[in-house]
Predict the structure.
Amino acid sequence: MQLRTEPFVLNIGPVHPSTHGVFRMRVTLDGEVVIDLEPVFGYLHRGVEKLAEERTYTGVVPLTDRLDYVASMSNNLGYVLAVEKLAGITVPERAEYLRIIMTELQRIANHLIAVGSFLNDCGAYFTPFLYMFRERERIVDLFDMVCGQRLLYNYMRPGGVSQDIPDEFMPALRKFLEQMPLFVEEYDRLLKENEILLARTKGVGILPAEMAINISASGPVLRASGVDWDLRKADPYSIYDRFSFDIPTGTNGDCYDRYRVRIEEMKQSLRIINQAVEQLPAGPIRSDVPHLIHPPVGEAYARVEAPKGELGFYLVSDNSIAPYRCHIRAPSLLNLTALREMMIGWKIQDLIVIFGSIDITMGEVDR
Amino acid sequence: MTVALSARDIAGQIKEHYPDAIIEAGDTTVSVKGESLHDVMTFLKETPGLDLNYLNHITAVDYYDYFEVIYLLTSLENNHSLVVKTRCYGRENLSLPSVVSIWRGADYQEREIFDLMGITFEGHPNMKRIVLWPGFEGHPQRKDYL
């Protein structure tokens, strides 16, 4: 007797603990193997680009916080770089160094969440997650000291930063920089050669380099596929050309490589912060910028290497106090383009692992 | 540093193959006609020496009389970039050829431009709304929406 089987459509719905936000996948399954996948998003669309047309240039900065809400400092930096390019504003030295310190601390905080929740998806539940959040608390405490906020900082302004660091910041930062490498070593001791992690992630969800370039992937997803492209080295912005650091790349483009690239990037960020702290000069933290900025008519595109990839802001100005058009090039949206190809042929459990390894934030995907 | 290619040189090269595709060439920006977009983009990706194999982003801006669609292309090996612009005149029934067959990264971005600005891309395999729900009427990012 022939056993008759039918494909089955499963909706991994917008409300789900493993979808990293409100993301919906309509998965067609043959047994437990995925044969088709359709991502549906737009549940967090707030019309940020249209809202930006009705706020002053400085007033758009809090909107940019809420794009990738896990890495607000990078979003702020990308936007203010675009405004400064458009209006021809220069930034004092101290502000440049403070921006780099905050952005690299933010990169470490983002990768801690990314790796922590990736391991949660792999089945290690909350043990690595809690270990990594314990360190993230110290970074978030540092940010709290500087700007009073734990998550959505609104710290950078066109022309500099909004506040100088208080006296207790530097000792706390130095203590963090001393102790963090030991914690990263602890994560490696627990996880790098872990049998279960290797079995679940080695060779799973491979994104070949050719496809990664074709889908405009960026950030750790592109580098794990073996493409050596990091905006901090290829097209340096701010003062990144003054620091020495390496760009970690992977070889296979599987989930394990993406996890390793993030851990190595954390170590490189610590190197950059150490150098920035030694070179930090005294001086003003914001150049003289009028309250309402009137850039000349024109357009500008500025991009940063955000923790998730290339975050770009395209601004068009018509000499009024608000941007005429503000477009945000979101890395998470483009990294999702090949989701279907990465997941076909794998089982549901692998689907969750692959999705966690890409590391997206819905605030950016939907804007 | 990523070098911005001289648009006039590139425009000269494109004119040899596609004589009536170029509208104008600024310092870093090449403006092409909508109909020749697919040919010009294929030429830019496949010519050795240009190799513009990475599409950074596609944006659309509403300038009341026309919509301008801007493409930023980069070559990862040669580390240079180029901006290509095109225009759609009018407000209704706008369409451009899709570049999804050249760079798959255009997939979601073209759907978003269709959803929020109302420009259809011909040749796109899945021309549906992406951030707004099916059945939504109107294109919110246009200047005359509200």
